[in-house]
Amino acid sequence: MTAAVSARASTAPRDMVWIPGGVFQMGSDHHYAEEGPSREVEVEGFWIDKRPVTNRDFARFVSETGWTTFAEIPPDPADYPGALPEMLYAGSLVFTPTDGPVPLNDMSAWWRFTKGATWKTPLGEGSDIAGLWDHPVVHVSWVDVEAYAQWAGKDLATEAEWEFAARGGLEDAEFAWGDELEPGGRIMANTWQGEFPYRSKKPGRAFRTSRVGVFPANGYGLYDMIGNVWEWTKDWWSTPSDAPVSSCCGGQREASFDPRQPEIRIPRKVLKGGSHLCAPSYCRRYRPAARHAQPIDTSTSHVGFRCVVRA
Predict the structure, then answer these.
(1) With contact defined as beta carbons under 8 Å apart, do 172 and 29 qualify?
(2) Is residue 298 classed as helix, strand or coil in its secondary structure?
(3) Which residues, 6 or more positions from 164, have their beta carbon under 8 angstroms from its beta carbon?
(4) From CA 212, how far away is CA 208, in angstroms rounded?
(5) Which pLDDT belongs to residue 253?
(6) Whole-angstrom Cα distance, residue 49 to residue 154?
């Protein structure tokens, strides 16, 4: 071990891994259009959490700060013009498996805005997180992850930092572990197994989050960078042609609005990593290059986060 590496190890923040800076090919030209074009990007070295923030972690934050999450607060009618008053209640989006095959171009078939769904009641009123303390926290919006990171003395990764870390030191590999989704038949991440969105082939027919660290770490020793939950990043959503991507910032806030819904002026952040709902038939985003746009006012049962500390 070199003196520099030894010094890094001796000052390592708890449960974080040092990611050396470097230049890499970010994005992909072989999958979804928003991932390309592949381009050369440089990042500086940084620390990143070994695993997603868990319910146990988040409960400590709430206990010490009294924080109320976005999902626990009824929406302000002024922010949602035209919304039916009876729909303006506190809650969050919960995945609900269907009874059988459905068209995969209509997400409303399996998503339900559920009254009382929060980080501590993930399936809505009457549910709890008993037995889920070491699962990733979910139902957290952008203001919640920002508040947690500030409390912890950390920050959220940029998209470039996150992708660089997820690749685990591999050059041009499709996945965080190599070029095969299931090398030798081994399942490497918590992604959908079975027929989406109605049949799970996992033990116990499970179709939600798993305990962090169950699946193998990548080459940097990071767990659940792929699958389990999507993870918030610091960058505003843009496509590579909209704005250059660097290790310090992404697209601008205004460019992140959804052009398909010009009447809705809600900015979006970049999510990375895919989740337990990603399936070969529906969402092949269980790769480091994959990305997704998430409105900052939206929380769901399949989105979480982890934090970074910059040198």
Answers:
(1) no
(2) coil
(3) 19, 22, 24, 26, 41, 43
(4) 12
(5) 82
(6) 10
Closest C-alpha among 288, 290, 294 to residue 19 = 288
Quick check: bond before 197 cis, omega within 30? Answer: yes
Kind of pairing, strands 111-115 and 308-310? Answer: unpaired
Which amino acid appears at position 56 of this protein?
R
Token reading at 31: 């999958």
Give the Cα separation of 296 and 257 in Å (integer): 11
Looking at the chain, the whole-number percentage of residues with pLDDT higher than 90 is: 79
What is the C-alpha separation between 275 and 231, in angstroms, rounded? 9
What is the Cα–Cα distance from 55 to 69, expressed in whole angstroms? 13
Cα–Cα dist 248/229, whole Å: 24
Strand ranges, E, within the chain: 16-19, 22-26, 39-43, 46-49, 91-95, 111-115, 194-195, 199-200, 230-236, 268-272, 291-295, 303-304, 308-310
CA atoms 162, 165, 166, 170: torsion sign: positive
Q: How much is the pTM? A: 0.91
| DSSP for 171-225, written as a single string | SS-SBTTBS-SSGGG---S----EETTTEE-SGGG--S---TTSSPP-TTS--SS
Q: Looking at the predicted structure, is the pLDDT value of residue 152 above 60? A: yes
